[in-house]
Specification:
The complex is a heterodimer of chains A (about 325) and B (about 290). Chain A folds into two domains: about 20-80, no CATH class; about 85-315, MetI-like fold, CATH 1.10.3720.10. Helix content of chain A is about 70%, strand content about 0%. Chain A has helices at about 20-60, 80-85, 90-100, 105-120, 125-130, 135, 140-150, 155-165, 175-205, 210-215, 220-230, 235-250, 255-260, 270-280, 285-315, and strands spanning about 65, 75. In chain A, strands 1-2 form a two-stranded antiparallel sheet. Chain A starts with 17 loop residues before the first helix and ends with a helix. Chain B folds into two domains: about 1-65, no CATH class; about 75-245, MetI-like (MetI-like fold). Helices cover about 75% and strands about 0% of the residues of chain B. Chain B has helices at about 1-10, 15-45, 45-50, 65-70, 75-105, 110-120, 130-140, 150-175, 180-190, 195-205, 205-220, 225-230, 240-245, 255-275, 275-285. The longest helix of chain B is centred in the first third of the chain and has 31 residues, at about 75-105. The two termini of chain B are about 25 Å apart. The chains are: A mainly alpha (about 325), B mainly alpha (about 290). At the A-B interface, helix 1, helix 4, helix 5, helix 6 and helix 7 of A face helix 1, helix 2, helix 5, helix 6 and helix 7 of B.
Chain lengths: ~325, ~290
């Protein structure tokens, strides 16, 4: 055991006064640690405070006002929230967010299986490991534009269906939320799976190989080892993937929607983010936009907390 | 020993399972190349050829679309803007997150755990929620009243702040996995707190730093939403915004759009594929279990 600086004090002081001197020296040391603790944390605290925490505070405040984003705001209490409660467009937007959250189980399991196959050195594993990450390197806006050009009525998907003689399946894919939302969901899963594969691989590489070896000696098959040995030991990584992919469904959908459907037809493919942007930028209702932003924030905070709670409890129980 | 262990892993899957799985994975790999194929095959067409068919290889080849994208959408200057903004974000967000992670994990001061949680909390904040107030704030920064709208520095500061919670999470986890003994040895040798940081912690943290550099660069390079509203002039707008503006002229010039997408995308993919082995190793070393 290596002694730490503060606990390395040897035998009790023999001379009177030495203890006091030592204690004040320790006090000075602790003060120095405090000083450096503050200094090292300061830049992060200042930036997060200035560009995340303080703006969030103002969002919550402006949610209680009538405000166009320019002139002084007028306090209206819960008026915006009362309007919000019966706003069918915002309800549709939130419903769509929850529909996109249906991708979370796929985003958790598909990359886990793929990572496990690569981890087991399946034929071609290093090629798969290299190519799976390519979608994650392409900008969301580029992915969205390619998706738009593929799914639009004169796009490659319909051209391909026509070319193989399936004219009956040709469809205006983006003209209805029934087809465009599943397609956008597919695009989101596709854009993120390689990133999650890599995160899982990192976790699997850090596992003690003896665990898997022991299970193999006991005659367990590959899938049994994944479910009973590998996955339970990847709790922190799975937590990370769960939280990031849920946050994606609520907090990173704007670009996809803006580029692929622009919220249309009508407001059918709206998500909360898009509606916040629309009310602020197009309608000049910044106060109302801030009330919606507060609701969206509450949802993501609650979901994040519930998920971490559930995962920690399962690990303990 | 470990060699036998890795080949032993394969024995677990019977061929009847292995080959369908490999085929499925090949399909996924192919899908990763699909957008690249769409962009590249259409960027070399003429717009007339596009109107006739979008699938299959181009029947005409022309570099005119690249010239239109480069000149018409100022893709060239946007490229430089994107590089400046992304590198600035990488440097600032990693430096500040590493310092804060050191403070939260290895400096012996009582509030470090509270501070860690207080900084980590913001990881769940949707960036768009910040859009309205950050826009107002950048127009006139509190106390000093400087206008940072349409400023690359302002954008870098916002990107840095938004990435800090995740960076802090990763760096703190990494620092906590390092034994305290290393640090105490340095301190007993008389190294001060900042000396220990620079000479012991930063060199040890290299794998995690590489991971963060990759993640943050990709994040900043690909960011669209803030940039769309904050960087509006030709001299500041990054590639993502320039490319989206090309989409507005899609009906008139689809091949010009595809050429713009190529210019925006292929350099990053090229760099990724060249350094792929190192990048993957860096990421897997930087994220623990």
């Amino acid at each position: 055991m290596t002694a730490s600086v503060s606990s390395s004090t040897p035998s009790p002081p023999s001379r009177p006064g030495a203890g006091i001197r030592r204690r004040s020296a320790l006090g000075r040391l602790a003060r120095v640690e405090w000083l450096w603790g503050v200094i090292f944390a300061a830049p992060a605290v200042v930036l997060v405070g200035l560009f995340v925490a303080y703006p969030l505070g103002t969002v919550i405040y402006y949610g209680f006002t009538r405000w166009n984003g320019l002139s002084p705001a007028e306090w209206v209490g819960f008026h915006n929230y009362r309007v919000l409660a019966s706003d069918p467009v915002f309800r549709t937007a939130l419903r769509n967010n929850f529909l996109f959250a249906l991708s979370v189980p796929i985003q958790m399991t598909l990359p886990l299986v793929l990572a496990y196959l690569i981890h087991m050195r399946i034929t071609g594993w290093s090629f798969f490991r290299a190519t799976f990450f390519i979608p994650a390197t392409i900008a969301t806006v580029v992915v969205g534009i390619v998706a738009y050009s593929t799914f639009q009525v004169s796009g490659a998907l319909n051209a391909l269906l026509g070319a193989v003689g399936l004219h009956s399946l040709e469809h205006n894919w983006l003209a209805s939320a029934h087809t465009s939302i599943p397609l956008i969901l597919l695009v989101v899963v596709w854009a993120n799976f390689g990133y999650n594969v890599l995160i899982y691989l990192a976790g699997m590489a850090a596992l003690d190989p003896a665990l898997e070896e022991a299970a193999r000696m006991d005659g367990a098959r590959a899938w049994r080892i994944l479910i009973s040995v590998v996955a339970p030991n990847l709790r922190r990584v799975m937590e990370l993937v769960l939280v990031t992919s849920t946050v994606t469904a609520f907090a990173y959908m704007f670009t996809y929607i803006y580029v692929i459907t622009n919220g249309g037809p009508g407001f059918d493919t709206n998500v909360a983010e898009f509606q916040i942007y629309y009310q602020w930028f197009t309608n000049g209702n910044a106060g109302y936009a801030c009330a919606m932003a507060t609701v969206l924030l509450l949802i993501t905070v609650l979901l994040g907390m519930i998920q971490i709670r559930v995962l920690t409890r399962r690990a303990e129980g | 020993m470990s060699e036998r262990g890795t080949s032993g892993r394969l024995m677990q899957l019977p061929p009847s399972q292995r080959w369908p799985l490999v085929a499925g994975m090949l399909l996924l790999s192919a899908s990763a190349f699909f957008p690249l194929y769409v962009m590249a095959s259409n960027a070399f067409r003429t717009n007339l050829d596009w109107a006739n068919s979008q699938i299959g290889l181009p029947t005409t080849t022309s570099l005119a679309a690249f010239r239109r994208a480069w000149e018409g959408a100022s893709i060239g200057s946007s490229f430089v803007n994107s590089i400046e903004i992304s590198l600035g974000t990488v440097v600032l967000s990693i430096a500040f997150a590493t310092m804060a992670a050191y403070s939260c994990s290895k400096i012996a001061w009582r509030p470090r755990q509270v501070l860690f949680l207080a900084l980590l909390f913001w990881i769940v904040v949707p960036p768009l929620v910040l859009l309205v107030p950050v826009y107002i704030e950048l127009a006139s920064l509190p106390l000093i009243h400087v206008n940072l709208l349409n400023s690359k520095l302002g954008m870098v500061l916002v990107y840095t702040a938004v990435n800090l919670p995740f960076n802090l999470y990763l760096m703190t986890a990494y620092f906590r996995s390092l034994p305290d003994e290393l640090l105490e040895a340095a301190r007993i040798d008389g190294a001060s707190v900042p000396q220990t940081f620079v000479q012991v912690m930063v060199p040890l943290a290299r794998p995690a730093l590489a991971t963060l550099a990759i993640f943050n660069f990709l994040w900043a390079w690909n960011e669209f939403m803030f940039a769309l509203f904050i960087l509006t002039s030709t001299s500041t707008k990054p590639l993502t915004v320039a490319v989206q503006q090309l989409q507005g002229r899609f009906d008139q010039d689809p091949t010009g759009l595809m050429a713009g997408l190529c210019i925006a995308t292929l350099p990053v993919i090229g760099v990724y594929l060249i350094f792929q082995r190192h990048l993957v190793r860096a990421i897997t070393a930087g994220v623990g279990k």
